[in-house]
Amino acid sequence: MHISHLSTRDALGSLHSSSGGLSSTEAQRRKAEFGANRIEKIRGEALWRQLAREFVHFFALVLWLAAGMAFFADYQAPGEGMATLGWAIIGVILINGVFSFWQAYRAERAMAALTRLLPQQVTVLRDGHARRLDAEQLVPGDVVLVQEGDSVPADCRVIEADGLRVSLATVTGESLARSRSADACDEADVLAAANVLLAGTAVVAGHGRALVFATGMRTEFGKIARLTQAGHEGHSPLQLEIIRLSRQLALLSVAIGAAFFLIGHLLGLPFWGNLLFAIGIIVANIPEGLLPSVTLALAMATQRMARHHALIRHLPAVEALGAATVICTDKTGTLTVNRMTVRQLWVAGEALDLPLPAELLERCRPLLDVARHCHSLREVSEGTRLSVLGDPMEVALVELGRQARDDAGHATRVHEFPFDTARRRMSTVHDLAEGRLLYCKGAPEVLLPLCSQVLTREGVQPLDETQRERLRQAQEEMAARGLRVLALAWRRVDGEALRIELESELIHAGLVGIEDPPRPEVAEAMRRCHGAGIQVIMLTGDHPVTACAIAREIGLLRGETPRVISGHELHHLSESQLQFALDAPEVLFARVTADQKLLVVEALQRKGQVVAVTGDGVNDAPALKRADIGIAMGIGGTDVAREAADMVLLDDNFASIVKAVEEGRAVYANIRKFLTYILSSNIPELVPYLAFVLLPIPLPLTIIQILAVDLGTDMLPALALGAERADPQVMQRPPRPRGERLLSWPLLARAYLFLGVCEALAAMSLFFLVLAWGGWDYGTPLARLDPLYLQATGACLAAIVVMQVANVLACRSPSESLLTTGVRGNRLGGNPLLLWGIACELLLIGAIIYTPWGQTLFGTAALPAAAWLAMLPFAAALLLLEELRKCWVRRQARAAANAAPTAD
């Protein structure tokens, strides 16, 4: 039998404790047995292992193999530059690993945040006396004193309560404060037990004593922490694509290199020279700059998103958000402002919206007086202003009551009948200038039977059955709007003894509808999500009626029959039943717990959805971590939620997600742009080796020159493509299919068979042209340091770079003309990084060709001006051919669009 089901006396006896607490000796013994009251960290993978893993994935292993072969080749044949190549490849591996390693610290910080959330000091009874101790010293059987403003240090059974109320928002997600009493409770779920205080929750009103029955990881808070730590953190869609792409390119490179090594062997090439060529082919086909380019492009996107109040903590989350098909959002503090507000009154037979006009204040004065005085708040002075602290609902009522008059100094409270779950009402008795009055508030269905009169426009009149029915209908109408409805009443006491029976023969003052209002900008955000093909699902700890009303107000629910699933129903659904339930066009989950949120996220992912989850409480942390992207609130969110999330909304504004989604979609499109750009240069890097093996010519391009392109000249223009602005229509299209690949056949065909061929033609033409200018005879070998050879190979390298300048302009859009993108406002002047990238690319190739250190390191010689002029027609031809291809693509798209209605 759970401790919540026991009486106070039996609860104390079950833990061998007393109302005066434990002795110090017994407390020390129990601490040795149960351990400290703190969130223990599950032992995870050592940081050195996480670091090592970044250097042994498949892509890195291929590069390690290439570096090892280069060093071995240098050992066998010194002076060929193979050692320089080996060190360059190792530098690439180190850069890629370092950029990824920092992500391993996220879980470490999450656990530190969980510890900070628990209170540091508590008041506990030891040896019959109250003492202030560290929360870690608590053990089962301790008796703690709690009061308004305290955080609960462990799971406790209430043994004394005086107007005690707690906010469960950080654990259950429920926005309304709940009262707590010392009475035994039959509730099976400990989260709903009215005599239990949960670790990590906050006391918002009253005071009391509580018996600790669970500490540390045994608390409900600890169970959530365990879920957060144990939750599997899968790869984002982009990470999966990069892994797949890296393996494909690496395997392709090794296969081509091995094939040409075999061909060279059959042609009778020397072994070490043949090995050199095989390594060159492998290096030429592996885009060494891909991983750094992707990482840096994502980093730049995080800076742009930060300007829209979205802080990215995990780089792949940038693109994952753009791929999101479903957003699972909490209600309290995410869609709403997390502040209770009086929305509507029902007074004298009339519904009144706020703010009240001046002419209605007198009519509503009795109700406003009850709202002003009937509370258990603590009033504090802030300069000249009087403010109140405590239950947000009562704060909202007091703020309403202040519209009537400022007479706090003329009302003296003489007694209080506190709120509890059995009575579902509270009353206060005050001495005022006009006499002694009792003010009462509570659930309408509880207060209405206690009333014998009602306030009408004509004054106070007897409460007949017709008026009772009108009040019940008014209550239902207000509840249908998602408002929490309270009834307010009063009566004169006339010097009678203060006893509970005074809560009878009351005068009904009216009804008050209270809500946590939605953020004003959320409705537009919902509209944009729907337009972008993103489904939004609310998961909240609040009541289904309240959740549905808010969902309709913000436009989340638009149909007549949405699928509303409560936590109780979800508990009884099998995995397959839950997945079928998620097929409904509109789904909403209410009264759900932390593990149930996790179940919904996992079910959506099994259905192939890319899931984003928003939340702010401790209860959201496991789902935030398991989702493809977790989004936490920066202001109202807990440390736990922020540390478990991939993205933090700095303004707690759901609408900021929409801008982040737009940016994420742009990132994916931009990655494909610079992927096309990077892969295009592989063909002009590969063709020289093929030509060298198959033809009696010198090697047109060295391996170190290939690295000069992949890790030098190509980097800044590639990053510039990653900074391109989002297409204005990007949020009017559905999310890309989960199975869509970054490396698609159309992209490969464009990069390898079209752009790459154009560049290879230009590079080989310039190589032969410079050789011809120098009087070279076909088939004549040239020494590695021959000035003519250095000039010819430098011309081949320069031609690739010049063609890449034209290519970066062509890659700005896969289908739109360069002129059209300029008219659309995305011209070069709108992307300064592109201009800087091109300028740096040209300066770098100039330094390689004309400076002594560049010529020595990369094996080049100065080129005549005629060589540069000879490259320009090739660049112009590439742009012209690409414009013709784009024109054909647009024409095909228009034809498909025109044919679609006919097919219907």
UniProtKB/TrEMBL annotation:
Subcellular location: Cell membrane
Chain segments annotated as transmembrane: 55-73, 85-105, 249-269, 275-299, 674-697, 703-723, 751-776, 788-811, 832-851, 857-881
Domain (Cation-transporting P-type ATPase N-terminal): residue spans on this chain: 2-75
Organism: Geopseudomonas aromaticivorans
Main location: membrane
Ligase listed as a keyword: no
Keywords: Cell membrane, Membrane, Transmembrane, Transmembrane helix
Pfam families in alphabetical order: Cation_ATPase, Cation_ATPase_C, Cation_ATPase_N, E1-E2_ATPase, Hydrolase_3
Protein name: Cation-transporting P-type ATPase
Record region (Disordered): 1-26
Protein's membrane topology: Multi-pass membrane protein
NCBIfam families in alphabetical order: ATPase_P-type
InterPro entries on file: ATPase_P-typ_cation-transptr_C, ATPase_P-typ_cation-transptr_N, ATPase_P-typ_P_site, ATPase_P-type_domA, Cation_transp_ATPase_P-type, P_typ_ATPase, P_typ_ATPase_HD_dom
PROSITE patterns according to UniProt: ATPASE_E1_E2
Compositionally biased spans, kind Low complexity: 12-24
